[in-house]
Prior knowledge:
Elements (H helix, E strand, L loop, with lengths): L20 H8 L3 E5 L2 E4 L1 H20 L3 E2 L5 E3 H7 L1 H4 L5 E4 L5 E4 L4 H11 L8 E10 L14 E11 L2 H22 L3 E5 L11 E7 L5 E5 L6 E3 H8 L22 H8 L6 E8 L4 E6 L2 E4 L1 H8 L6 H11 L10 E7 L3 E4 L16 E3 L8 H10 L10 E15 L1 H5 L3 E3 L5 E3 L1 E7 L1 H11 L1 E2 L2 E2 L10 E5 L5 H16 L4 E3 L6 H11 L3 E5 L7 E6 L5 E5 H8 L1
Parallel strand pairs: 3-7, 25-26, 25-27
Antiparallel strand pairs: 1-2, 4-6, 5-6, 7-8, 8-22, 9-10, 10-19, 11-12, 11-19, 13-14, 13-16, 14-15, 16-17, 17-18, 19-22, 20-21, 23-24, 27-28, 28-29
Helix pairs in contact: 1-13, 2-6, 2-13
Adenosine-5'-triphosphate binds next to strand 8, strand 19 and helix 13.
Amino acid sequence: MKQSKLFLNTLRENPADADVASHRLMLRAGLMRQLTAGVYTFLPLGYRVLSKIEAIVRQEMDNAGAQEVLLPAMQPAELWQQSGRWEDYGAELIRFQDRHDRTMVLGPTHEEVITSLVQNEVQSYRQLPVTLYQIQTKFRDEPRPRAGLLRGREFRMKDAYSFDLDEAGLDASYQAMYDAYCRIFDRLGVEYRAVEADSGAIGGEAGNHEFMVLSEAGEDTIAGCSHCSYAANVEKAVGQALPQADASQTPAREKVATPGTKTIEDLVRVLGVSASQIIKVVVYLADGKPVAACLRGDHEVNEVKLKKVLGAKDLTMASAEEVLRETGKPVGFVGPDCGLKVVFDRDILSIADGVAASNEAGYHDIHVVPNRDFPVPETADIRMAAAGDLCVKCGQPLRLFRGIEVGHVFKLGTKYSKAFGATYTDESGAERTIIMGCYGLGTSRVIPAVIEQCHDENGIIWPIAIAPYHVHIVPVNIKDEQQVKAAESLYHRLHAAGVEVLLDDRDERPGVKFKDADLIGLPVRVTIGSKIAEGNVELKIRRTGEVQVLTVEQAFETIL
Length: 560
Ligand code: ATP
Ligand code: MG
Ligand code: MG
Ligand code: MG
């Protein structure tokens, strides 16, 4: 490709509203442009990268025995009503009326479509197992589209769905996909972890892993052990380490009338949040000193303070619980000189009013106010504090990492096959429910995830597998006939040998050309300048910055 013809505008300046490195670089290197919030146009360079990622994903899916289909993005609402997700999916589901007033949705994911398809097509055990996949555009009206392609409202995903006779079959299908994901991320050249994950809204039975590209720009926190292989999404780690207050323990309606709060359940009710959103409740004295903390229902209390407040003797964690039960007095929410800080999954709130005025009985309504009284730690710090207490498998403390969720493999079980009546007749003629798994991979999110790991202050550093082109040939002065001739000849020879080459044939100053070359970040640059008079060129490796002076012939051989 000749750069003078390429539909490309690089930007000198950092775009104002892009505060994540990959977002800035994708705009500056001319990979994409925003149309509206969370919706992007892929320009030629960006589309080449996306196509390469999708080609790798497609190869590995095919190798794993999955078969590609193309599913409709436009789907009737009835399918979503049948699965129950018409209500459950919430405002992320894009809904609209067609001209005949039928309600439709734009697919954020395709369990409904694929299960109804398989329900119609599969009758006998002879047709199973089967894994189908699609690579296409998905739509989610995300509340906070963020950082370019990292969280779009319209984005690209590979999604696969497995259909099996029994649990053992599902285990095998799941393992095949898990292994394929490892091969994909190995080939993409990124550092990643497969971590145990929470089931979330998709609703499934045992078993699911998220594939995380390690990066500070990620929204997920991973708890990992350096002593054993344990690695989990922090929500999952907290859940595994501590007894989780589940919805079934939420107080009954009549209790709601009781003013005041003394347990996590009370808080949940007053704040109108779900228990699993609360990571930690900390009780502070007015001087900001924490005296007690309650972590997802597990009490951890400053004994001196508690003894004073409750008048208890020989206090232990267990007896604190007992005292609470017997006296009905609050353990955590201890008195007139305290403030409460509730640490949520994402936001931090302080509960000061009401509690501060707490009397002997300690029963007061809680008012939620933004936390101005206490320094607000980063969410990661809070998770650090929470996870510092966890040792989930081998007893060693966990370390926390930030990650970008790029893939998710999930044992669904029979949630969707039951809802759609997807059954088969077994060898004995009995009717049985198909067992499902689903396997998502955000192909467009992979691009910024890779860039987060592969860039420097000058631009992108593409891994060869997904670089838009492999080699950048830069003749320094296109008015110099010798340079142009050498550049064109090398360009044609490499092209004929199957190497993807970008030739910077623009009449620009060398500084501009070099800056653009670093920004675009192709793995190898061949600079053709005045040394061509002696038959030499410069070959530069973008990743290491290593420069070699070679003859044209040597450069050609080195690249091949
Ligand atoms: P997240 O937790 O980041 O919202 P998710 O768990 O909702 O993601 P899944 O339903 O598991 O996402 O979808 C499979 C994959 O699709 C994700 O692992 C991710 O790579 C990608 N993905 C999901 N939402 C988006 C989005 N808004 N923009 C880009 N990629 C996305
Ligand atoms: Mg999501
Ligand atoms: Mg997720
Ligand atoms: Mg997920």
